[in-house]
Write a structure and sequence with these properties.
The protein has one domain: 3-Layer(aba) Sandwich (Rossmann fold). 44% of the residues lie in helices and 9% in strands. It is built from 4 helices and 3 strands. A 3-stranded parallel beta sheet has the order 1-2-3, with helices on both faces. It starts with 9 loop residues before the first helix and ends in a 12-residue tail after the last strand. The mean pLDDT is 94.
Length: 158
């Protein structure tokens, strides 16, 4: 839910929490027996750059995604060494979910310029990151939040 804080209701916060945090809980719990039975299991959850970057109109989603990051850290500790748990927290990515934010050349250009790499994220890049985190190549990575955000969360280029 992206809207000014003064227009957010408790139900907005609860809806975002249910979808993001409790949705992750339900998904993981539904496959936990299979994950435990696997010789090398991994879980990848999704957060947002909004957790670490104060962004207007993101209070509800940032709070819900921060809960996802907290859940992931707790589960990474609890489920180790058999199950790895990591998070991907991207910035704006060119997906149908972001279509309203990227409608038109002017909006797209403005969004791209906010990032030090001067572009919007490509969903294929995020998919490759998921593939890596689920693979044996990431076997020594757990409890981490990776931020494919074009440098937005920790670089200043102005």
């Amino acid at each position: 839910t992206l809207k000014p804080f003064h227009r957010l209701t408790p139900d907005d916060f609860l809806a975002d929490y249910r979808v993001n945090c409790l949705g992750a809980v339900a998904a993981i719990q539904s496959v936990l027996p299979a994950l435990k039975a696997s010789p090398a299991a991994a879980v990848v959850l999704f957060s947002s750059v909004a957790v670490t970057q104060g962004m207007p109109f993101h209070a509800s989603i940032a709070a819900a995604k921060a809960a996802v990051e907290g859940l992931a850290g707790s589960l990474a500790a609890e489920l180790a060494p058999k199950i790895r748990v990591n998070v991907i927290a991207p910035s704006l990515t060119d997906t149908p979910l972001a279509s309203a934010l990227l409608a038109g050349d002017a909006k797209r250009e403005m969004a791209a310029k906010r990032h030090p790499l001067q572009r919007i994220g490509d969903p294929a890049e995020t998919a490759q990151m998921v593939e890596f985190l689920l693979s044996d190549a990431a076997g020594f990575i757990t409890g981490q939040t990776l931020r494919p955000d074009g440098g937005l969360s920790n670089l200043r280029t102005f």
